[in-house]
Amino acid sequence: MIELKKLVEFCDQRARTHQVKDFSGALNGLQFANDGMVTKIGAAVDAGLVPFQKAIEAKIDFLIVHHGMFWSGAKPVVGSEYDKIRSLIDGNLAVYSCHLPLDAHPEIGNNALLAKKLGIKPVDTFLPYEGTDIGLIGQWNSTRADLRAVLKQTFGQRFSAIEYGSDAPEKICVLTGSGASAIEHVKATGADTFVTGELRQHHFNQAQELGLNVYACGHYATETFGVSALAAEAAKAFHLKWEFIKTECPL
Fold first, then answer.
1. Cα→Cα distances 9→75, 89, 96, 155, Å
2. Between the CA of residue 111 and those of 89, 157, 249, what are the distances in Å?
3. What is the pLDDT of residues 56-108, one digit of tens each?
4. Which of 74, 87, 163, 179 is the most buried (most CB within 10 A)?
5. Residue pLDDT, tens place only, 145-160
6. Contact call for residues 244 and 42 (beta carbons, < 8 A)
């Protein structure tokens, strides 16, 4: 058992939660408190009623999420919004959110951990946002076919391959989650290959026109890494158990 305050301080420092600027709706940090003590840590991609219920069933009382509770701004606390708040109070579940800081982190960030899993060696960053580069550039020493194979091994059939770049890419850009803001910046980095989470239909045309290899692996699937890494480190630091809360999101 550990004090909630100490666990929050650890997460703030390790993830640089309040040092990296984010979208206003992210509201990074502790978003919902519990009674002040933590016995088990959880990790989930999204703050939502089902993840909350699953966490409570697993006897978790501190849940680290990537997408927090307040993306849509202020809402009346009725219907499902009421149900979410009521479940947190009844289940004594604290919620801690960390978005862009947990994408861009060089060690426990989604980009860095996905690159490591795929065998991509980080060499630089790209796509600045409010003073922080939120994308990663990596070195690749094999073929496009090998990249596709390791992506299939990692994500199963839930990835889409658009291949109009080189057969043997040397540089690969990685941006987990939504790649919509990044695709037009890939060529400027010297890369012609881009691994991301989700795209929109018109990005197929952009990939053709720009001569890119683009792999969309799922917004949810590419953002499971950071919250899991932060939860694991916090659990180890305070001798607690932790668990990832899976929600079967196909997007």
1. 28, 22, 11, 33
2. 33, 20, 19
3. 999 999 999 999 999 888 889 999 999 999 999 999 999 999 999 999 999 99
4. 179
5. 999 999 999 998 888 9
6. yes
Helix/strand/coil percentages in the chain, nearest 5: 35, 25, 35
Domains of the chain: residue spans and CATH:
2-102+224-242 (3.40.1390.30), 105-222 (3.40.1390.30)
Task: Kindly provide the residue ranges of all beta strands, DSSP E only, lying in 69-142, ordered along the sequence.
Answer: 94-97, 121-129, 132-139
Max Cα-Cα span within the chain: 56
Amino acid at 4: L
Chain-wide mean pLDDT for the chain?
95
